[in-house]
Write a structure and sequence with these properties.
about 475 residues, mainly alpha, 16 helices, about 80% helix, globular
């Protein structure tokens, strides 16, 4: 059996991880939400958003700086772990004390759920750092195991809790199962054990990269969570639930692209940080791969969103179709830039990531304050303000850092752009022709027509070869 499976460092495991994560996250989200209903799903979404806003930056506190650093020593690893655990303890206290305030501000009964999930922070923090060390070694098979083994367990836990009448608490149960199972897997399989070693000097060496990067990740992860909490202060919980479902459907699909690009780009670009010519070529290949996967997914979701929502969620959730369409269309420009966050990490210029995320964070909140949306479609308009503003800025500074022209990048993006354009025309035509058909055959027919059109354009343009970014054993 070992001879049949790809090697531990094969990019095939990146595809398995990202696709598996998308499928299990989608199944878990849809099944639990359908069972517990919009109101309970909205309550659970608020509690989960608050927890993840605190959890994500703690779990990633020193991970990227360890990944980027050349000449990594044990004093860096152990000191970073103990500092991360200290941050987790502070996070637990913040969530515990802040839970009643969030409950009063949103009018949702989330105090108990937030406090219960706060207990997961130390396990998530340790798992996050272990994941970074495993990624640095390009052990993609172990990273994929987190999804292929742990996510089905978490989804099953959430579904069983929902069927048992747990309501909004089902989402907390699913989060707990995911966090604890991933921690146990990495603790047993990573092969690294921390020492009783803590050096402030070691942390000081990591901080110039870790500081801005963790703030960028905090803003990146927190902008959606804070947006949902802010929206919950303006609208009813059912509107929050519909908005959350629309955004999460897109997030799950886009994670296939962003997850794969990040897994492949971070260790590869970090290893080439001292060779600018090779770094630029690798970036161009990765940008092409990201566009090849991301553009057709975003365009396809924009075309098929109404049918997809109808099939997956049913009548009570049909309001999620239009916001899903808007968010999908707004995601397209982001796939034309390439994995810019990984580039800034490799160059040690993580302040650039922070700057871009601050722009993406601020504009949707300004939109909430100015437009004060009352439905999910209006909320989506507020959200996409950040998605549309960042790509042009990112493109300008990225090409300048790589000393490359727009024509250089356009040459690599020509095949996916042309393929997506043809796919969009064919898919839109198929959707109109199949409008009178039942939802399932109409969706299948539309997707199949678009996929055939996309492959017919892209395959000859690439010379019937795999993208160069995947041609690595």
């Amino acid at each position: 059996m070992r001879r049949v499976l790809p090697g531990p460092a094969s990019p095939a495991w990146v595809a398995a991880e990202t696709l598996g994560s998308a499928v299990t996250a989608l199944v878990g989200l849809l099944f639990v939400a359908r069972i517990i209903g919009p109101q309970a799903a909205g309550t659970g979404a608020i509690a989960a958003s608050v927890f993840l806003t605190v959890d994500f930056p703690i779990a990633a506190l020193f991970g990227d700086s360890l990944l980027q650093r050349r000449g990594l020593e044990e004093r860096h690893r152990s000191s970073a772990l103990w500092a991360t655990m200290g941050a987790a303890a502070v996070g637990m206290l913040v969530l515990w004390l802040g839970a009643p305030l969030i409950a009063r501000a949103t009018g949702a009964p989330v105090t108990g759920m937030i406090r219960a999930m706060a207990l997961l922070l130390p396990f998530s923090a340790a798992a996050g750092m272990l994941s970074a060390l495993v990624l640095k070694e390009r052990r993609y098979r172990l990273l994929a195991s987190r999804v292929l083994l742990c996510q089905p367990l978490a989804v099953g836990t959430g579904v069983l809790a929902a069927l048992g009448g747990a309501g909004a608490w089902s989402m907390a149960a699913q989060q707990a199962a995911a966090t604890l199972s991933v921690f146990l897997l990495l603790a047993l399989r990573s092969g690294w054990r921390p020492q009783r070693l803590f050096q402030r000097a070691a942390l000081a060496e990591l901080w110039p990269v870790a500081g801005p990067q963790i703030l960028a990740l905090l803003v990146f992860n927190g902008r959606y969570r804070i947006f949902i909490v802010g929206l919950g202060m303006l609208v009813a919980e059912t509107v929050v639930a519909v908005t959350h479902i629309a955004f999460r459907l897109l997030d799950v699909a886009m994670a296939v692209v962003t997850g794969a690009a990040s897994r492949l780009a971070m260790p590869r670009l970090a290893a080439l940080q001292n060779d600018r010519a090779a770094l630029a070529e690798a970036y161009g290949d990765l940008a092409q791969l990201q566009a090849l996967i991301g553009l057709p997914i975003a365009a396809g979701l924009a075309i098929t969103a109404p049918r997809l929502i109808e099939i997956l969620m049913g009548g009570p959730w049909i309001g999620a179709a239009e916001p899903a369409r808007l968010v999908a269309l707004a995601a397209i420009p982001g796939f034309l830039v390439g994995p810019a966050p990984a580039l800034w990490l490799a160059l040690g210029r993580t302040r650039m990531n922070l700057l871009m995320q601050l722009v993406a964070f601020t504009l949707p909140l300004v939109g909430l304050l100015v437009l004060r949306p009352q439905d999910a479609a209006a909320a989506a308009i507020c959200w996409v303000l950040g998605s549309l503003a960042v790509p042009p800025l990112q493109l300008l500074v990225t090409l300048r850092a790589l000393h490359r022209s727009p024509a250089w990048l356009a040459q690599r993006l020509l095949a996916p752009l042309l393929g997506t354009l043809v796919m969009g025309v064919v898919s839109a035509w198929a959707a109109r022709e199949l409008a009178a058909q039942a939802a399932v055959p109409a969706l299948i027919g539309t997707a199949l027509a678009g996929a055939i059109a996309y492959a017919a354009v892209v395959a000859p343009a690439l010379g019937f070869r795999w993208p160069r970014a995947l041609q690595e054993a």
